[in-house]
Amino acid sequence: MNSNDRVPGSRSIDALLIELDQFQTDENLDPVDAVAIDGKPMLGVLLDDSPLGVEVVGVTDGLAGDRAGLIKGDKIVQIDEADVETPADAQMALANHPLGSPLQLVYIRNNRRYEREIRFTGASDAGGQAADAAAYRVTSLEREVAVLRRQVVLLRDAIRLLAADHHHDAAE
């Protein structure tokens, strides 16, 4: 039996790998809404120099970077049409971005390129921002749990397929 043979009621290893790989990009397709701080777009990330773009070294919960899915270690390489090579480049691109129009964010994670659109809106008050951030975090965690559950099912299927393949090879 090879890795593409199917065990009744299961998927092939290739199909499982494709489906698992899809989880890495699903959340990066939809635009996100974020609140501008003092009327200015702000990602809410700490950046450091990197050989490729700028490295995210910290992310503030509930702000634009968090909502866009940025994590520690991501490399931001472009904001709108501006290439980002230093933290100052990122600050300049954000300062030049007009509030109300979508910001295009391009970053690298695990040698893969991701694009994310962020729509900044004004905030009426800091209390509203905190409530919005908390509600977003709960929704984000619920979504993450659902994705993890689907991944567990896929991994279980992969283990069953590999066990059946091993059992078949041992019987020969």
Write up what this structure looks like.
The protein is of the alpha+beta class. The protein is 42% helix and 23% strand. Strands 1, 2, 3, 4, 5, 6 and 7 form a 7-stranded mixed beta sheet that branches. Strand 2 (45-49) and strand 3 form a beta hairpin. Helix 1 runs antiparallel to helix 4. The radius of gyration is 21 Å and the shape is elongated. Residues 1-8 have low confidence and may be disordered.
Count of helix runs = 4
Helix/strand structural class = alpha+beta
| Computed CA radius of gyration, to the nearest angstrom | 21 Å
- Topology as a string of helices (H) and strands (E): HEEEHEEHEEH
Q: What is the mean pLDDT?
A: 79
Strand content: 15-25%
Give the CA-CA distance, first to last residue: 10 Å
Query: Uncertain runs with pLDDT below 50, 5 residues or more?
Result: 1-8
What's the overall geometry? elongated
Write a compact overview of the structure shown.
Helices cover 42% and strands 23% of the residues.
Descriptive labels:
single chain, 172 residues, disordered N terminus, elongated, alpha+beta, 7 strands, seven-stranded mixed sheet
How is this fold's topology laid out?
Elements: H1 13-26, E1 32-35, E2 45-49, E3 54-59, H2 64-67, E4 75-79, E5 82-83, H3 87-95, E6 103-109, E7 112-121, H4 126-171
Parallel strand pairs: 1-7
Antiparallel strand pairs: 2-3, 3-4, 4-5, 4-6, 6-7
Helix pairs in contact: 1-4
